[in-house]
Amino acid sequence: MGISSFQIATIKGDGIGVDVTESAMAVMTAAQEALGGFALNFDLVQAGAGLFRETGQDIEPGGEKRISDADAIFLGAIGLPSIRHPDGTEISPHLRLREMFQLYAGIRPVKAYANIPRRLSSPEADNINLVILRESTEGLFYSAAVHRRDTVATNEEVQDILRITRATTEKLHDFAFKLAHKRKSKGLPGHVTCVDKANVFRSMAFFRKIFEERAAQFPDIEIGFSYVDAQALDFVRKPWAFDVLVTENMFGDILSDLAGGLVGGMGMAACGEIGDEHGLFQPAHGSAPDIMGEDKANPLAAILSGALMLEYLADKSSVSALSDAADLIEHAVETGFAQNRLRPMEFGGDMGTRKVTEEVIHLVKHNR
Length: 368
Ligand code: ATP
Prior knowledge:
2 domains, globular, binds adenosine-5'-triphosphate, Isopropylmalate Dehydrogenase, alpha/beta, 10-stranded mixed beta sheet, 368 residues
């Protein structure tokens, strides 16, 4: 029997996206070599603001088809402030892919690692380990300017719509419960908090009602409820008390930056965007033009996004070596910080992109 191989449509993109994608590919390849049992084929697709400047297109011809045919999509970062469409908006094929593939489940893990400056003084902040599940195709982003949907917009009044559909919300909540189930099997609490504003908005009461309906199908998962304003407070007061949090698009956008800020910087913020057929993985940060080409970017957000992608492929294919590879990478990062062997410049350390990558690869090879 041949080993399973997976096609990864890989967009390095712009700025530091190029460097951190190369780091993530190198680390995933090291994990593949260490464990065997699967093969990753990185199919490089040209896309981004740089490409747009040269050719007038934001994804190379034929690229969308290759992306659509792939088993997963990995993206570095896209966009450069100096390159824009004539109407002033930034080049953003990423949002088009999100819409095209209906990537409704946005997952953002938020975890404290040892030796990264702690923003909260309580020692309990060392135990922060949660996942924000942000609905990513509707909610208050439904009428966002990038989608160009018709809403009231005159010189006297402008309206945006908060749209919650049953179809997407059922899938979203099921995703949250399954994720909690998986975390529980790994020894984590595995409970789900529904974050909404059900006391004010009908759309949010509907979101909560569907949460309660779906929760009945997962009786082993403990549930909780929180209004988004109280959740912001609790993320500062006791973020270690939460496990999986599921929420509307805009609330998730804001809360994930707040929670991410509690455990480090953008260079640690991994992200997955998952739909029924496709999954896109990328660091949550942008192209960071202020540090591009200087070997200063922290590649760990991209590397941890790679681990999320391997976990996704494991679920999709039932090839368990992929899940082992994801664990191996996460464990390498954890050990690297615990032993003070990972010291990214982002946190005042002496290691640039290449040094951090080399150390993670070393740990992947020797820390099993
Ligand atoms: P976008 O709108 O695409 O998210 P942005 O310009 O708002 O982009 P980033 O590109 O994420 O935001 O950069 C914000 C700040 O964070 C910059 O000062 C950048 O130097 C820093 N930063 C972002 N990513 C990293 C990283 N991986 N390592 C170190 N610093 C980073």
